[in-house]
């Protein structure tokens, strides 16, 4: 791709929390001094923390997206997915949305490609579980859950009805907890309008190998989440994992078998595989950078967010966690440091203060510890929603409007069926994109099936 300008060219790969903020900061600081190009597979920034609300029908999917070209003035958007970085030639190769190949050369590069679903070598999981890392998966889950309740109502026998009404979430980190919390409320509201067999109601199980839910967060958040979820009837099984998954259910490592058609895999994430192909040192798959977010030996290359192993200056010897808070603030530092490398301002190391964490437990409830103060109940719920509204870089009024509507109207119990099981495989390098029949193969991911009936994951009969 040729450029007319002779200004330095900065390429930012990935427009999530880190990349969006890097682009915004840089466009402001180095306006007129550098050309900034943002390479991303979608034309929007995705506010991932609200994804469980999309899966539960609280928010419509476009609410959690923010248009890149609408918010990032003076930044050129190139739609595509990077599949190789040549550090010697200073070039990024990519595949566009219609399969076209392209290349961007750079003077400065920021890698902010985030993470993808983490797989564990458990038989049947890749085929029968779905992850929760992108909008297509959230849309799939909303439709799938709605369909299960509808099919349960029409099931020929009680065992089938019970299996369809059983939902298993593996991984009780913040994603799994929020998916189970919102999912349980969603199915409860769906079941009100379906004639399920007497004595059968939606059942949610939340499993984790760890001894408590939210194992990586403050113990007080964990206690609150456990109390709220258990109080609503979610079965929490800690110290438990999945031994095998099949089309009909899951076998747990304690020997129990759960008949279900729904297995949501929230065991965590791993860095986007793009960074492993660069040939530079990695820390658990994350690209190692110095405190200035520079890749050692390459002062022109920066990395931040989930894909980068950033030294935690507050905890020497550790790396910062994979959270939106870190990614957002690292993006800002990356933007500033790229500008400094072009002669604008001074560079600085990434330092942070723990601002606490918020977990949305659905309804009006939450668990939060803003600035270390533990909160629970509706106050925590209000703080959580307020925090998300403040943190979103756009679309706030629409999100607030959906929350208001959800508070006064029943949820819409309809499934559009646009995202099918085979189009959101668990093992993919591109959770942000749904596979489409005959579409281009995703770099590093699963190829799209030639048609919806010929995929390596045998579609379930109802899908
Ligand atoms: C359901 C869910 C809830 C969460 N809730 C919270 C929360 O409450 N609080 C919190 O702190 N964290 C939360 N997180 C974690 C947080 O979202 C991540 O840590 C954060 O998104 C990381 O930011 P990032 O910029 O590194 O990656 P991302 O935000 O994932 O952005 C990566 C971007 O890179 C793009 N990309 C990927 N590969 C390529 C490629 N090859 N070429 C070009 N572009 C590419 C992607 O499309 C995406 O736009 C949650 C995560 C999930 C999944």
TrEMBL record:
Residues 437-451 have a biased composition (Low complexity). Residues 9-331 form the FAD/NAD(P)-binding domain. Gene3D superfamilies: 3.50.50.100. One of its GO terms (molecular function) is NADH dehydrogenase activity. Keywords: FAD, Flavoprotein, NAD, Oxidoreductase. Residues 430-463 are annotated as: Disordered. Pfam families: Pyr_redox_2. It comes from the Bacteria. The keyword Transmembrane does not apply. Belongs to the NADH dehydrogenase family. This is NADH dehydrogenase. It comes from Streptomyces spectabilis. The lineage of its organism: Bacteria, Bacillati, Actinomycetota, Actinomycetes, Kitasatosporales.
